[in-house]
Structures are given as C-alpha cells and as structure tokens.
Amino acid sequence: MFDYETLKLLWWGIIGFLFIGFAITDGMDMGVGGLLPFVAKEDVERRVVINTVGAHWDGNQVWFITAAASLFAAWPMVYSAAFSGFYFAMMLTLFCLMLRPLAFDYRSKIASSAWRANWDKALFVGSMVPPLVFGIAFGNLLQGVAFSFDTLMRVSYSGSFLALFNPFSLLCGVVSVAMVLMHGTTWLVMRTDANVARRASNIGSVVSLILPLCFITAGLIVWQSVDGYVITSAIDTMAQAQPTIKTVAVVAGAWLNNFTNNPYLWFIPATSIVMSLFVFVMMRLNVKSGLKSELCKVMAFIASSLSSAGVILTAGVSMFPFVMPSSSRPNHSLTMWDTVASETTLSLMLIAVVVFIPIIIGYTLWCYRKMWRTVTIAEIEQNSHSAY
Amino acid sequence: MINETLVELSRWQFAITALFHFLFVPLTIGMTWILFIMEAVFVMTGREIYRDMTKFWGKLFGINFAIGVATGLTMEFEFGTNWSYYSHYVGDVFGAPLAIEGLMAFFLESTFVGMFFLGWDRLSRKQHLIGTFLMAIGTNFSALWILIANGWMQNPVGSEFNYVTMRMELVSFAEIIFNPVAQVKFIHTVAAGYVAGSMFVLSISSYYLLKGRDVAFAKRSFSVAAGFGVAAILSVILLGDESGYEVGEVQRVKLAAIEAEYHTEPAPAAFTVVGFPDDEAMETHYAVKIPYALGIIATRSLTEEVIGLRDLQKLHEPRIRNGMVAYDYLIKLRNGEETPENIAGFNQTKQDLGYGLLLKRYTDNVVDATEAQIQAAVKDSTPPVAPVFWAFRMMVASGMIMLVLFVLAFYFNARREIEHKRWLLWAILCALPLPWVAIETGWFVAEFGRQPWAISEVLPTFLATSDLAVSDVVFSLVAFVIVYTVLFIIEMWLMIRFAKMGPSALHTGRYHFEQTPPNDVGLRQRSV
After folding, report:
1. DSSP string across B446-464
2. Mind telling me how many Å the CA of B192 is from chain A's nearest CA?
3. Interhelix angle for A43-53 vs A194-225, to 10°?
4. Do B111 and A62 touch (CB under 8 A)?
C-alpha cells in the first residue's frame, strides 16, 4: 500500500489528529467541568452547565482512550516509556479522570446539597488536573525526559517525580488549562443563556487573552533557554524500529530549526494566536449584542478549536521528528522514525483509522445535532428527574 | 536481577484493578441487550409499561455503567505504567486490537449511551431504539476485541519475534482474529455477561414480587430476564471454555491444573470432582472421580488423552535448554554479531526463547544457569494447581445452581404461577451474587492458570513489569484499594437505594411509592 517511510509520516499525523480530536471534544467538556464553579452559582444553573455536555462527555472521552490505544499500537515504545516514566503523574491523572464519569452520572441522582457539592468538586478536579498534567508532560517532553534502554530494550527512568515540575513545564500546564477553559466557555456560550452564558462570555474574554500570552512566553523560553535535540547520524527512514543506534546532539534553540528551515510553518503558531484573539473579539461582540449573535457564538467555537489544534501542532512540529527526547541518554531519544510499530501493524491500523474515523465523526455529529438546543433553567426544572 | 517484590505487587495491583473492573463490565454487557429487548417491545406494542421498564432498569444500568467506565480507564493506563516491558515486547501485536476496539466499538457504545439516557425527548421512538441497539452492539464488539487481545495472550498466534526490534511483531491479523481460543473466550464471556444481566433483573424483580409491589412491572421484567437468562446460561455451559483448551501448550497446562491431573491417564480421562492437589508431591489426595467425564468434556472424544502436569513439565525441560541456546544467539545478535550462522542458529531455536527467559528469574545471563536452576524453571513452568482447581469448581457450582434457578423461573413463569412460588423467589433473590462469583473465579482460572506467562511461551510475567521502585507500586496499590473501596461503597449504596425504590424512581406517578407517599420521607431526602 504505502512504503514504511510514508506510513511512519502518516502515523505521526494520525496520532496528532487523535490528540487534537481529544482536545477539541473532551477538552471542551473538561473546560466545562473546570468552569462549573465560576459560571454557575445555584444548583439549577450547575445542572444547566452539566447537561450541555451530559449526552456527549462519554463519547468525547473515547478520543483520549483511542489516542492512548493508538499510541500503544503505533508507537509502543513511546507508550511504554512515557506511561512508566511519568508514573505518578499518570496515576494522578488516572484517579482524577475516574471521578468524571461518576460525577456526571451520580451527582443529580440524590437531591442532597452536600452530595451534589462534593460531586461538583470531583468534576472540577477531574476536569482540571488531567489537562494540567498533560501540559506539564508536554513541557517535559520539550525539555527531554531522563530515560534509557538496555540491550534487551527494557526502559528505565532515572528522573524524579518532583523534577517534572519546573517553571517552564508549569507554564505549559497553564497553556493547556487555558486552552480547555477557553474552549469550554465557547461551548457554554453556544448552549446556555442568561447568567450562565454571560459569565462564560466574560471568563472567555479573559482566558482568550491569557492563552496567547502564555503560549508566546513559552515559545520565547523555548527559543532562549530550552535545549533542542538534533539527529546527527544519517537517518534511514525505511529502517526497522531501533531507537538506540542513532546519534543525537543537544543544541540550544534547536526546537526552532523546523520553523527556520520551513518558514511557512510559522503559520501554525500564528493561527493559534490569531484564533484565540479572534475568540476574544467574538466574545466581546456577543456580549454587546446581548448574547444573541448566533454567528459570533459559532465562530468563537470554531476559532477556539483551531487555536487548540494550533497549540498541539506547534509543539509537535517544533519537536519533529522527535517524540520523546532523552535528556540522560540523548542517543536513545524516541523519534517518529525509530519508535514505530512494524510495517504490517501500521498498514493494518491505517486501514482501521481510514474506515472508522469518518463513521465515528458521522454519528457523533448526528448525535450532537439531535441534542442541539439551548439548555435553560426552565428545561431542567421540568425534567428534574431525568436530566443529569 | 528481577525484583520479586515488585513483580508480586505489580501482579496484585493488576489483579485487583482488573477484577474490580470486571465486576461491572459483565452487567453492562448483559443489560444492554435486556434494555434493547424491553425497548423493542415498547416500540412494537406502544405499551408504556415497557418504556418505564427500559427507563428504570436503564437507571440501574447507568449507575453500574459509570463506574465501569471509570475503572476501565485504569486498564488502559496500567499496561504502560506497570507493564512497560510487556507494552514494548508485544505492543506491535497486542496494541492493534485495543486500538481497533476504541475505533470500532467503544466510540459507538459511549456515543449512544448518552443518547440512551438523555435522548428520550430528542429522538423519535425508532431512532432511540436504534441508538439502544448500537449501544448494545458497541458493548459486545468491545468485548470481542478485548477478548481477541486476551486470547492472543493465551495462545499467541499470527506473530513472530524480531531480534532487531527486540519484540513480537504482527504477521497475520486474520490468525489473531480467528484464534480459536479468542473465539470460544468471546462467546463464553459475553454469555456470562448475559447471565449476569438476567440474574440482576430476575433477582430484583423477585424482590418486588415478594414485597407485592409494582407486580405488573415486576412480572414483565421477570419474564424478559427468565427467557433471556435460560438461553444465556445454556450458552455459557454448553459453549464453555473447555473446547478452547485443546489448542496451545499453555491452555493444555491450564486444563491439567484445573483438573489437578498430575499423571496422564489413559483416554478418556476421569473428571476429579473434588480432591486436594499437592504441588510438592505432584499428587491429588482423596480425589473423587467420575469416569470418562473429563476426556469427553475436554477433548470431545473418547480416544484423545488429556496430558498430566508431570508429563507436561517433562516436555518443558528440553525447551528450557533450547531456550538457553536461543538466548545466547540473541545476545550475540543484539551486540552486533549479525553473522549468517548466528541468525540461522537463532531462527532455529527462537520458538523456545520464552522458555529460556524463565531462567532470568534465577540468573541474569540465562546461559550460565546451573542444573538446579533449570529444574527450578521446569517447576515454574506450570501454575500452582490448588487455586485454579478450586476456583474452577466454584465457577461450575455457581453455574449449575443458576441453571436450575433459571429453568425453574422460566417454567413457573410460563405457567403463570411464579407469584405463588415464594420459596423460588427467595432463592433467586439470594442467588444474586452467583453470576459475580462465577465470573470472577472464571477470570481467575483463565489468567492465573496462564502463569508463569504474561504471553504464553513468549514472555514470563516476572519480566513484563516496568522498571519502578517498590515504593512506587506500594503507593499506587494503596491508593487503588482506598479509592476503589470508596467508589464501591458509593455505587452499592446508590444501586441498593434505587433498586429498593423500584419504578417509583421514575416519578411517573404510576408506581407504588407515589400512590401513598410515606410520611417519614421528607422532600429533601427523596431521590430524583
């Protein structure tokens, strides 16, 4: 079908696509969960907020599950090195993610206010900690992770949990949280009205300025003080996966090489920045129009999706072809050329992706369309026993 | 060297989290079809009570589903976090069914589960019914792909070891899909899920009938569960896992362990009903046997032998020695000595590499293993018999009791006498835990019986772990135990509360507690 080199490139794109899908869908309802304490003051308002994503959070979450499973299948070494290396971070994320399904489903089943308040906290934590950790993890990927392989390709991690938290990685965590919060506000503005929508608009206007600010700052830090990685040996793009035989140099500012060599790539971070500023403008216009401009609302959501995609792609492109550089043993860094699954597996999985992704997008959109409406306080009060 | 404590803790953590997750999955698998049947009757007849049934049992299903999703995430993480060498070693093969499960099944299930709960007013009746069907199909496909992955661990077909990448690689995906072990495993496991779903509805309906509450609702629910349950329990028993035990060396070992058969008996072998397996002496004491039964059950023939553990271990010894040779070649190849002789030598011996790796527990170099170490590895090559033996018998006993109950329930229900058979209703109510006993012990037999292997004959479990500190896993294990206990208490509390309330939980105004609202329940405590 395709040669191994093309398959490797396609899979870099597919993994990126799945993570962007995760950010746009699950990122949206994580943002909604994170906004819950700020946009909704009363119980019924909180139920309005939750019910905007009530029917969709579970399907959205599968983007994450599929992205991780695809990592397992297509880049098994990245999956094994990243998940075991970031052990505590992953466990923390996992425990937080576990809170979400329960919070969504159990919260409104009991009318006690203490019960509901606790699940609201659980939903907030479960929605905010994972993006924070993912952002911090990305920050660490950019700085390199302390791992190496032995002769039998057993990976060992020599960094500490606390070392994951440094100013740069925390900034990346803020970028990630701001991204999902902005996205959550654009969703709530589309699907709610009155006070909830107004508060979401106001928060959205602030966050859509914080995001580009932090994103640009992170970019400047990468340029000035984060060491990049460069492959110095010849790359055989058709070779089998052997991540330990190349040589890699650590070079200051090298993460910008791809942009310097291909200036048109600047389009990606630029899109991200422009799109978040565009979200700001749309949010303001929407408030001015008395929350009535459907066009502004939809444009804000699309712009926010593009901005999220831009943030993720920027990180991916600046590191390309690296996926997980090793700070302790640079030669053992994982790149998209040498950490991949076999040609047979990549071909097979490509077929699965090409067949199923359009079907998934199709029925997902159908469900969103069917459930599309402005969720109002009146609606929740009417369906108090069947709504979330 | 291998850190035995780390291995033990990692295994405990995986076992606890998987067993816990597996408390909820089978009920989801079974309930989706029961809900579909109820809703289909509603759509065809237009009778409201069937919509109420779908919604009420759907509520209980939802309480179970949420915790199933939450604990399922753990499984997704744990291969990478705690079994990273496993992930590297077999990710090329094992990852594919998991990813396809996400794409083909889990997306479908999870997208339409939202429609099931919240789409009643937004979809037409037919659309909603189709959504419920897609949710059920998605759930079952999900089980299919997970069991294809698990079947490959039991009987790793369609793949080959590649010394360049130091891992198993996919050769034929068709072989992996049509792996006979995976096929019987799928049917056995989903049917067990249908049994769990049926018993759940049957028992709780019995409770309402015993209380004389919402009788029309309970009788209809009882009928659906009794019919579906009889079909399900017969499938589980008749299409039991045994037929898959003919294929693959490790499955044969497992079968011998299940039967505590240390000595090979002439065909057809007798079935040991009870006895006391003794791994030291390699004898089963005080065995009570049924002549011929095992041979017929296990091999479906009168002439084929079921090989005993002593003989199986004898077969493993030369493979371990051969595995040492394979390991020697592998190390040479990994160190760059890729001469044609080394490659040819490795290819001739690599089918036994896994057996050689069993020695890693005793000596890191494998090739310098002493005679005593080789004998120890031979001993290791079969699992401890007693736990597998007893777990299997608990599973079968639970299954047999359920078979009797389902047949009686079906019979008296068909004769419309069920309301008056209070002893049977009580028995069914008390039998509610049985599907879970059978399912958990069955899972234990399948996975513990696979030991010492993570991937049969390919990768020993003790090699498959991540390179973590013992304290890391102690920490996460304690966290899992605490968090899962809390979640379990919450889930059970909600489940019991809603099950006791019955269809009144729907607030339609048509059911028991809504006719004469009890005075002692204040508005604040009343559930919605």
Report:
1. HHHTTTTEEETTTEEGGGS
2. 25
3. 60
4. yes
Nearest CA in chain B to A56: B114
* Alpha helical stretches, state H, B212-248: 215-238
Structure tokens belonging to residue A207: 């966050």
The alpha-carbon gap from B251 to the nearest alpha carbon of chain A, in Å, equals: 26
Q: Which residues pair with B167 in a beta bridge?
A: B162
- Say how many residues make up chain B: 528
Question: Could you tell me where the DSSP H helices lie in chain A?
Answer: 4-39, 43-53, 57-74, 76-85, 87-106, 113-143, 167-191, 194-225, 257-261, 267-288, 294-319, 343-371, 377-382
Check CB contact under 8 Å for B99 and A352: yes
Q: Are A169 and A139 in contact, with CB atoms under 8 Å apart?
A: yes
CB contact under 8 A, B69 and A74: no
Chain A residue numbers with beta carbons less than 8 Å from the beta carbon of B115 are 55, 367, 370-371
- Is the bond leading into B452 cis (omega within 30 degrees of zero)? yes
Query: Tokens for B145?
Result: 């792909």
Q: How many Å apart are CA B58 and CA A109, to the nearest integer?
A: 13
| Rounded-to-integer distance, Cα A377 and Cα A357, Å | 35
Looking at the complex, does the CB of residue A365 fall below 8 Å from at least one CB of chain B? no
Q: What token pair was written down for B228?
A: 């579906």
Structure token pair of residue B364: 């890191």
Question: Shortest CA distance to B249 belongs to which of B170, B183, B313, B325?
Answer: B313
Output DSSP code: residue B359: G
| Distance (Å, whole) CA A285 – CA A302 | 16
Q: What is the sign, positive or negative, of the torsion defined by CA atoms of A9, A15, A19, A22?
A: positive
Global ipTM: 0.93
Residues of A numbered 168-207 whose beta carbons fall under 8 angstroms of chain B's beta carbons: which are they? none
How does pLDDT run across A247-263, given as a tens digit for each residue?
999 999 899 999 999 99
Q: Distance from A157 to chain B by nearest Cα, in Å? A: 7
In angstroms, the CA B473 to CA B79 distance is: 14
* Among A56, A162, A198, A146, CA closest to A333: A146
User: In Å, how far is B177's CA from the nearest CA of chain A?
Assistant: 13
Q: Which two tokens stand for residue A352?
A: 């699965």
Closest CB to A62 among B92, B102, B472 = B102
Query: pLDDT at position B527, please?
Result: 44
**Tokens found for residue A216:** 């640009």
Query: What distance in Å separates residue A287's CA from the closest CA in chain B?
Result: 29
Q: What tens digit of pLDDT does each residue of B350-363 get?
A: 999 999 999 999 99
pLDDT of B526: 44
Q: Buried b vs exposed e over B12-31: b needs ≥16 C-beta within 10 Å?
A: ebbeebbebbbbbbbbbbbb
Does B519 score more than 90 pLDDT? no
Instruction: Round to whole Å and give the CA distance between A305 and A28.
Output: 9
> How many Å apart are CA B100 and CA B431, to the nearest integer?
37
Interface test with B, best of A66, A151, A381 (most B CBs within 10 A): A66
Q: Please state, as a whole number, how many other Cβ atoms lie within 10 Å of the Cβ of residue A243.
A: 24
Mutate to test the interface with B, among A60, A91, A161 (most CBs of B within 10 A): A91
CATH number for region B179-246+384-445: 1.20.120
Q: Which residue of A has its CA nearest to B111?
A: A59
**Could you please report the per-residue DSSP string of B84-98?**
HHHHHHHHHHHHHHH
Q: Choose the closest CB to A79 out of B63, B91, B93.
A: B91
Among the listed residues A363, A104, A105, A59, the one whose alpha carbon sits nearest the alpha carbon of residue B123: A363
End-to-end C-alpha distance for chain A, whole angstroms: 47
Most A CBs within 10 Å, among B28, B67, B103, to test the A interface: B103
pLDDT tens per residue, range B144-176:
999 999 999 999 999 999 999 999 999 999 999
pLDDT tier at B51, thresholds 50, 70, 90: very high
